[in-house]
Amino acid sequence: MTETAPVITVSNLIKQFGRFAALRGVSAEFSGGRLYAILGDNGAGKTTLLRTLAGLNQPSSGQVTILGASKFHDICQQVGYMAHPSLLYDEMSGMENLRYFARLYGITSSTRCAEVIRAVGLDPDLVRPVGQYSQGMRQRMSLARALLNDPRILLLDEPFSNVDLHSATEMVHLLAGIRDRGTTVFIVTHQASLLEGAADEFVWMESGKIIGRTKELKRPGGAR
Fold it and tell me: Do 169 and 137 contact (CB within 8 A), yes or no?
């Protein structure tokens, strides 16, 4: 299911950290129900763009409109975000972590927590503290947390980092299914080949700008 109207519009977005401009006049529209891979070298502005869409960075200038709202607070309940660090509480089990985050969304039932844990291929009955998880398990639990509120916009920063190929492929299938149900998915990754056949569009960034958008995994004006 693809929505025709843009669910996200970015207009002349600039983000500066001191004298350094991480985003330099980014303008783009993104349609609903699509999976976007955000690609580029280190320092291209990928994570800064994602964090700005997630309401974690305030633009230095320009505007971001998400689901028709220009204030992130108005739509924050409809956005899921997975940072590059897992941001989980090491002393808690996976289920305890999700129950805590669920309460922040007003979700009081444990059923949803167990549902998203199973969706990412983990066991909700595992009592081991998250601090004893492998890095791949931590990544999958972090993804489960981002899915808790059944978001319309899902923003993921390097979700496949330190995840074995089989598990990463399963995560891609899960994310493609979430997209097919109408969620708009953004994935910042250095493992773009995992998304061949799944991504609707590859968005290429360089020096704080979007330099092109392609249907196939081929850098604009350059080699694959």
Answer: no
Coil, strand or helix at 83: coil
What lies within 8 Å, CB to CB, of 122 at 6+ separation is 94, 137, 140, 141, 144
pTM: 0.92
Would you give the DSSP letter of residue 1?
Answer: -
* Pairing mode, strands 61-66 and 6-17: antiparallel
For residue 168, the SS3 value is: helix
Query: In this predicted model, what pLDDT tens digit does every residue of 125-171 receive, in sequence order?
Result: 999 999 999 988 999 999 999 999 999 999 999 999 888 898 899 99
Share of the chain above pLDDT 70, in %: 97
Q: How far apart are CA 121 and CA 189, in angstroms?
A: 21
Dump pLDDT digits (tens) for 71-87. Answer: 999 999 999 999 988 88
- Reduce the DSSP state of residue 66 to 3 states and report it: strand
Q: What is the dihedral of CA 96, 169, 214, 25, to 10 degrees?
A: 20
- Reported in sequence order, the residue ranges of 110-194 that DSSP labels E, i.e. its strands, are 153-157, 184-188
CATH class assigned to 6-90+152-214: alpha beta
